[in-house]
Amino acid sequence: MSLWTSLEPASATVDPGGSTTVRLRLRNTGDVVDEYRFEAVGSLAPWTTVEPQSLRLYPGTTGSVELTFAPPRTPDATAGPNPYAVRITPTEHPEATTVPEGNLTITPFTEVRAELVPSTVKGRFRGRPKLAVDNVGNTKVTASVSGSDNGDQLSYDIRPSNVQIEPGRAAFVETTLKPRQIIWFGSAEQRPYTLAVQRSGVTPLDVEGTYVQRGFLPRWLAVCLSVSMALAITFVMLWIGYKPQVRSAATEQLQEAGVSNLPPLPSPTAEAPKAPSADIPAPPAAAGTQQPGGAGAEAGPEAGPEEGSGAGAGGGGSEEQEAEAPERTAATAVQRLAAKDPTGRHICYRVFTAGQGWSDVACDGDTAGTVGGGSPITAVNTASSGTKGTSSGAYIHNPASTDGAGQYRDPWQNAADGIDVHVGSTEKDAPHMLGFALSVDGGAGTVCHTSYVHNDTWLGLACDEPGAGLAFTYVGTHDNDLWIEAIKLTV
């Protein structure tokens, strides 16, 4: 069996969101009647339609089918040349399959979206909003971020001020707002501001937010201090104006009785000082101070149980309270966020670093861990809210590895919203973590991450792809000789 094929044209161009058609011509050069089935293959197959899907040809006759390409206006439609192919399967000789190939060029388009999280921040000396910049185009975007406001009332510290974002990815820009003047007394004032995402040759994308600057001292405290000061001044003035005069009434009565010269009093005779009497009791020792000879020797049989235990109970109470104070985990932090924002999605996390212990809890894109310190992470604690739970598994160093990869040794850990998930180990000499797998909403939700790898740098921001067959995303490296030192997570 033989078959002649031709794509007209062999190379075509299409805009994302549009469509284009290519004609496939074929001739049955064999000596039997055959029916041919057509199937698009390759990365463009989901966006390719073949009409008709089958064609019957007599020997020596020619037929044609139309290939229609309709890539969507999404980051999945990669800009530039994209090869495609059509599999032609003869019914009479299915083993003699023909696959003609062509090239489709998808034109580039750019689309950037930005959002402030949160849009309103409050503070006395600073505010720390985050700007999420999403590249929903099909080409890499380079942009700079700057801030401005009416009256130049705020200063801006933007990190990083320039970002490069791959198609379908997002970048988080941390912004610190500082008021140029402090409000010492009085009510809070709203200061609107704008963060501009600027790209070369394109009108800047402005994102507006509000910084609510609070007074250093609340109004009620300022009123109390003013009233207290006025009362103190009034009291002093009254004391000065009505100060009592103290006089000796006895001297005045003697003068009225005519007694002017009183005999002198006899002078005291020199006398050796007396020794202190043995009957005078010694003063009691101060509470909580141990006397020489031991507290038990001084207390005596008269010291009751209340006196003997009062100082001890008072001295140890604060230590017991500190010992019983609950540890601040990822769950306690995310529960507070959920109480403030019941309808939002949040994730909090902390890491256990060898030789340093647990880090402070970080939430929603903040850094947990030590960047560039060289100390490996051996355990991670996560908790989320608004995501129907969290699942995670630790990928750790494998000393017996022969292919340079680590291992999943422990089973996955699952927990509902607001509950801690711990992976890894906090024991001494625990293996360091190369990374960990993470999932929210049972694999149907979105979680994004970036991590700092030892002797490297921050990895690019990555997210899972709900609905694309991926049930989780992986944070870190697979190299058995490396480890993660810090992480950032968002949902």
Automatic annotation (TrEMBL):
Keyword check for Membrane: yes
GO function terms (MF aspect): hydrolase activity
Biased composition (Low complexity): 272-290
Biased composition (Gly residues): 307-318
Residue numbers spanned by region Disordered: 259-331
Species of the source: Streptomyces pactum
Highest rank taxon of the organism: Bacteria
Keywords on record: Hydrolase, Membrane, Transmembrane, Transmembrane helix
Name of the protein in question: Hydrolase
Transmembrane segments: 220-242
